[in-house]
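Dig into my protein:

:::
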Amino acid sequence: MRKNNLPKASWRITKIVIGGAILVGLGAATLAYAQTKPMPVVEKVELDRYLGVWYEVARKPMYFQNKCARDVSATYTLNENGNVSVDNRCYSKDGILQQAIGEAFVKNPPFNSKLQVSFLPEAARWIPVARGDYWILKLDDDYQTVLVGEPRRKYMWVLSRTPEAKPEVINDYLEYAKTLGYDLSDLIRTAHSKVKPK
């Protein structure tokens, strides 16, 4: 009796294993497709309107922001060579100012929606290496809120002209990020204090 049942039992296990493998494969393929789909960007960005101070209100984790506990901001200004100067600031848990100065290069003029940022020493920034993608994915008509990301969908930021952005606006941008294939399970909501340490 047991000998006759063994082939049937083995076949059932085999079917379960094969079925499970197919489901895992389909899931992996779907995820891979989502990550390789072209990343849409806004049609055009007017750089003169985009310049100025932006406050980070949400982000996905990024290694160079590990020390940022609160009050994260980015200031963009046009430099002499037509590129964008980047001044990133935040405060650590101990209240110490963290600052990173860089330069952004437009990759798709005159649309200005795809940039690359370098934080190399100023004399070496012209070398096209160690640059991070900075793609503008969603931007309102008044240039008050922006979703910034990159084609691998690993990093993402929601920036606002005010540190006290409306929750419904932030959520709208985050929902849009999800439709682009972003996993927001590790999302960080950026804290801002009214009075920054001197």
